[in-house]
Amino acid sequence: MSDALIDRPAADETEAHEAVAPETVAPEPTVVVSDLHLLNRIIGKGRRGGGAAAAARRLLLREQAPGQRSVHAVRGVDFTAYRGEAIGLIGPNGSGKSTLLRAVAGLMAPAQGAVWTRGQASLLGVSAAMMGGMSGDDNIVLGCLAIGMTPAEIAEEYESICEFADIGEFVHLPMNTYSSGMGARLRFAIAAARVPDILLIDEALATGDARFRRRSEQRIHELREEAGTVFLVSHGLTIIRETCTRVIWLEDGRIVLDGPPDAVVDAYVERHENGDRPPARRAARARR
Amino acid sequence: MIDPAAPASAPAPGLQRAGARLPIAEYSRRLWERRWFAVAYANASNSVGYERSFLGQAWQLLTPLLNIAVYYLIFGLLLHTNRGVPNYIAFLSVGVFVFSFCQTSLTSGAQAITGNLGLVRALQFPRAVLPLSTTLVALLRLLYSLIVIVPILLISGEPVTWRWLELLPAIFLQALFCLALSFTVARIAARVPDTTQILPFVSRVWMYMSGVMYSVQVFAQGHASWVSSVLTLNPGSVYLQLARHAVLVGSPAPLNTWLIAAAWAFGGLAVSYLYFWRGEDQYGNV
Questions:
Q1: Do residues A31 and A81 make contact, with C-beta atoms less than 8 angstroms apart?
Q2: Residue of B nearest to A54 (CA)
Q3: Which of A1, A203, A204, B94 has its CA 20 to 30 A from that of B184?
Q4: What are the CA-CA distances from residue B228 to residues A254, B234, B254 (Å)?
């Protein structure tokens, strides 16, 4: 079996760190990503020729609309995740972290390559189903249904969701009266109610006070033990160090480094804090 | 698009391809599992849709009432398209309400994927839930509108008869057809964003062809036979006729109208469900 912790040589610097042997005897792969390329389709802003006649022609002739472009967000990523791992994804904005998570969740079809998972990977993204105009308790029901719980399961979990969110009487008020921290707590509480096989978290812990952050870290720890594998995208490097067992550093859609948290985060900090951006990144900026 | 060069078999036993389209049976089973979500999401979007107006839910009834008033003024009083129709106001009301179910399904079906991209990008569930939910919202509005329609029928002098019960199968068949409509436009709109701009025209032309404000039978007399067969096969007018035969004085709906209605409902649903399912793995890439 290959090592759970693989170091990759970076494009232009950072030598490989010592790989630590995995503790389990035969690690079970839960996510295999092979040569993955992902395209984000973007519909150009302010394009011309948007009249009804032009639209009709496009409909009939199945032409590509003018101004439609794709951004090559992930360009050839390979890694294997194992049961029991909590993998942090770090990298600057636009490096493809969130897009990669969406592909692991099966929400996006790859342009090339493939993602294989053991069981269902779920993005902690229940907020999309929730509606600000509705009360917290209505949203608990709606959110839980959205992540695939049955009405009976919801009735069972309802109390513990309220307890975990810890928003007291606010649960009966519309969600758009909540502070951002309260909203984040409720969303996390709903999303964490069901234990998925593979849990994907995208910046969910950015809001919320210190107490909630501690509790959600605790919950992630539990989920990791119950679930199998956790992926965490965050710019909070402290959270990454504290909760993850392995870190993948992405830049411009490629893996720069993949290994133990401290080593990868240190290398990342060293490059980015010193303002020493890689040449590719600078070129991309100049183009915009 | 799935790369044909990608390995077809799993790299390790027990692994499945993420985001692969499920076989139709398994897909339908998961859709059934999410039925409560479809209902809850329809209820939620229906109630949230009106929250920013002073009159709130009252618009559910006011909008169709105003529509009837406008159509009555223009078509009944000014253009006299009411020829050959005994109780025009009742005829028009039934037409407007029943046809707006088709119309709403068409326009909101186009928004089913494109208007819920946040959801499509965040959660894994059979996407057929979304057009199902927009159709449920439209059906809910039709049922609300019965609160307006029944008094209009009674005041304009239509008697209550057992034949009113025919509304139930008629609305049921129409709902299946509207669901088919939503599945179809949901996939088209997800691929071609301009669909939303073009649909208002399609739906208006369709309305004028469906005999909402005139009698298709009266109109077809004196035109070539193909005109009358197009007009009678048009699903929009078929469901209108069933509803009108049910609640207005006159003969019961002919059997072949029921057969055409059933064919559109079941045939359309089967074809459009397959069509929607075949696009399943691409909805997240919009």
A1: yes
A2: B194
A3: B94
A4: 63, 10, 16
Q: Per residue in A78-99, pLDDT tens?
A: 999 998 888 999 998 888 888 8
Consecutive sets of 10 residues in chain A, 288 residues long: mean pLDDT of each?
43 41 65 90 55 66 62 90 90 88 88 88 76 86 89 90 86 86 84 82 67 77 77 85 90 92 92 62 43
- CB contacts of B14 in chain A (<8 Å) are 118
Mutation for testing the B interface, residue in A34, A108, A141, A203 having most B CBs under 10 Å: A108
pLDDT digit string, tens, across residues A239-282 = 888 888 999 999 999 999 999 999 999 999 988 876 555 544 44
Nearest-Cα distance to chain A for B230, in Å, is: 22
HSE at residue B41, side-chain half, CA atoms within 13 A, is: 27
Residues 6+ apart with CB under 8 A from A93: none
> Mapping DSSP to helix (H, G, I), strand (E, B) and coil, where does residue A148 land?
coil
HSE-CB of B9 using CA atoms within 13 angstroms: 2
* B3–A102 CB contact, under 8 Å: no
State how far the Cα of B184 lies from the Cα of B203, in Å rounded to an integer.
14
Give the span between the Cα atoms of B11 and A191, in whole angstroms.
30
- Minimum-distance CB partner of A56 among B17, B123, B198: B198
ipTM for the predicted complex: 0.81
Report the SS3 class of residue A23.
coil
Nearest CA in chain A to B50: A133
CB contact under 8 A, B44 and A138: yes
Chain B residue at shortest CA distance from A174: B48
pLDDT digits 0-9 by tens, B201-242 = 999 999 888 888 888 777 777 777 787 787 788 999 999 999
What dihedral angle (degrees, nearest 10) is formed by the CA atoms of B126, B128, B133, B139?
-150
Q: CB A144: neighbour CB atoms within 10 A? A: 27
Q: Of A43, A48, A94, which Cα lies nearest the Cα of A69?
A: A43
Q: How far apart are CA A206 and CA A200, in angstroms?
A: 15
Beta carbons within 10 angstroms of residue A274's beta carbon? 8
- Bridge partner list, A38: A74
Residue that the structure tokens 């360009």 belong to: A75
Specify the DSSP element, H or E, that contains B189. Answer: helix B167-191
Q: How far apart are CA B26 and CA B280, in angstroms?
A: 13
Q: Would you tell me how many other CB atoms lie within 10 Å of the CB of residue A137?
A: 14
